[in-house]
Amino acid sequence: MLREGKTMAVEKENIIRMYTIMLTIRRFEERASLELESGNIPGIVHSYIGQEAVATGVCANLTFEDRIVSTHRGHGHCIAKGADPKRMMAELYGRKTGYCKGKGGSMHIADFSVGMLGANGIVGAGLPIAVGAAMAAQLEGRGKVAVSFFGDGACQEGTFHEALNLASIWKLPIVFVCENNLYGVNTPAHYAIPLKDIAERAKAYAMPGIVVDGNDILAVYEASRDAIGKARAGEGPYFLECKTYRWRGHAESRAFADLRPAEEIAEWKAKCPITRLERKLLGDRLVTREELAAIDRHVLALIAEAVKFAGDSPWPKPEDALEDVFSVAQGVSK
Amino acid sequence: MREITYYQASNEALLEEFLRDDKVVHLSTDVPSSLLKEFGPARVRGTPISESAFVGAAIGLAGSGFRPVVNIRMATFMFVAMDQFINQAAKITYMFGGQARFPIVYRVTVGGGVSMAAQHSINPYSIFMNIPGIKLILPATPYDMKGLLKAAVRDGNPVLSFEHRALAMIKGEVPQEEYTVPFGKAEVRRQGTDVTVVALSNMLYAALEAAKEMEKAGVSMEVIDLRTLVPMDKEAIRASVAKTGRLVVVDEACQTAGAAAEIISVAVEDSRTFKHLKAQPVRVCAPDVPIPYSPPMEKFVLPDKEKILAAVKKVMR
């Protein structure tokens, strides 16, 4: 990125910001797993640990005016787009102060005020919604974009085909970000997909498709800057396949066995996107170990604050269940 | 007053709402030419046959401040996109804790009677009545088509408009002046004292015909058009049944777990209404079969005036 001629100061600030966001996602997810284990969070959560560079690198190129649509593994996208970890954690806790007043939980966090149009519990269902957000951006004509995040599993859904086709014929300002973490639950992508690179499919929709190392934050940042820039300029949709890996099983739940080989998991842990950036920052002497330690303390404090906020927050009243079926502040019709 | 068709009434409604609010946009496989001419291809957008994509795109548009109107054509085509209807459109207002509005109008054609067979003939109201989060409108007259559709465009929620294919060319009085028809307000189409007949959509006309005949036989039928199923004007049903003491519900859909069953429950579960009942309520619906193709069989399964007459006579015994 330095070759673009930006000043070292701006770039350093940007890189440190992305590092901080990746670490915030990591610490949030570590804590969410613990809170689930200890029973403070009901249901399940899908951990984003290992994939932090994707959400962070892409969203670093977006403003609150741009809109994203996320997946069941959505905490990382929320944080990277600027959602408040306190209200996220409160939602996981099922409290009234959560983003969805406790009606959605982990798989349905949204923050429309920062352009985060929602996580989604149905694989592949977010792509058409993101296409609609992109059509809105096109109609508004102010250079906004939409980003659709989805996994390798979603690429075998019919909505994938329909959404990419529609985005292409309408030349919508959208970037399709495929987070290929190599598995749909326990089904390997190489079993489900007859191609080495999912990005090859972009050709069928007449849009550029490139493969990015999803564990290299700078590579993700640069590739998405290019893709988002083209979308903003009216050049139409773009497909980014980010190869990455989730460290945890499909979900933080004993109901989902993790059948992936232990060596493979270890191999990918060695490619940790956060450690990788740390090494680069230290190697390039952009930060000191002390500075990194200070960032971690700051992030841990932020997460502790989020957990405290969630724990101190009131439960919804049981009868609150009857509100918000329709958007006017009325209950269900009598 | 001037008379226009049901079809013209829907076009007028959209033209007026497009003029009133530039956030209204249209998605459909065949582009409505009058809208396109007036407002251009950016707002009046033709889609490929990709129901999941455009049903879902409407959600993204609505969540981004627009008011999409989506014409899906046959109600049976909705089933291609059921995830987007049920898991997405219907639930997201609630799942997101009411933080955003999703004003969307989905229009579909319902009904049988023209030998289109099962994959092009259906009245799937009750499927959606069981999915909270989508409002359901059933305009039966040109006046209601225009007024309900305009209200639907202005509503802050997903609205599914069930429009009966047999009504497209029916004419009726529609004022030139601006108006909307509020949701959840039934219309008593004919006053009566002996039996309440709640008739859905196109069944209104068969019920009104039956009422004329019953009048000659000395039976006074009250005919109610609910106009919207979600929200449902339960008070109108109860008030009428409390007055007449008898209830017949006419719905072209299959009988089991249909809207008619719900309407009867609305009456009988209410103790004040229940104690006025003089006879058991009766449903006039299609039997539980897919709609057949061949005219004699199709006529056999669909409710009509004769079947309504038989039901009314039964509750009058």
Verbal overview:
The complex is a heterodimer of chains A (334) and B (317). Chain A has helices at 8-37, 52-59, 75-81, 85-93, 126-140, 158-169, 189-192, 217-232, 262-269, 273-283, 289-312; strands at residues 67-69, 146-151, 174-180, 183-184, 187-188, 209-213, 238-243. Chain A is α/β, with parallel strands linked by helices and 334 residues long. In chain A, the strands form two sheets. In chain A, strands 1-2-3-7-6 form a five-stranded parallel beta sheet, sandwiched between helices. Chain A has a two-stranded antiparallel ribbon with strand order 4-5. In chain A, α4 (85-93) crosses α11 (289-312). The radius of gyration of chain A is 20 Å and the shape is globular. Mean pLDDT of chain A is 94; it is low at 1-7 and 329-334. Chain B is α/β, with parallel strands linked by helices and 317 residues long. Chain B has two domains: 3-173, Thiamin diphosphate (ThDP)-binding fold, Pyr/PP domains (Rossmann fold, 3-Layer(aba) Sandwich), CATH 3.40.50; 187-316, Rossmann fold (3-Layer(aba) Sandwich). Chain B is 40% helix and 22% strand. Chain B has helices at 6-20, 33-43, 51-63, 82-89, 92-95, 125-129, 142-154, 203-216, 234-244, 259-268, 271-274, 295-301, 305-316, and strands spanning 3-5, 24-28, 44-46, 67-74, 104-110, 135-137, 158-164, 171-173, 187-190, 195-199, 221-225, 228-230, 247-254, 282-286. The mean pLDDT of chain B is 97. Classes of the chains: A alpha/beta (334), B alpha/beta (317). At the A-B interface, α5 and α6 of A face α3, α4 and α5 of B.
User: What is the general shape of chain A?
Assistant: globular
Q: What percent of residues of chain A are in strands?
A: 5-15%
Low-confidence spans of chain B = none
Mean pLDDT of chain A: 94
Task: Compose a concise summary of this entry.
Chain A is an alpha/beta fold and 334 residues long.
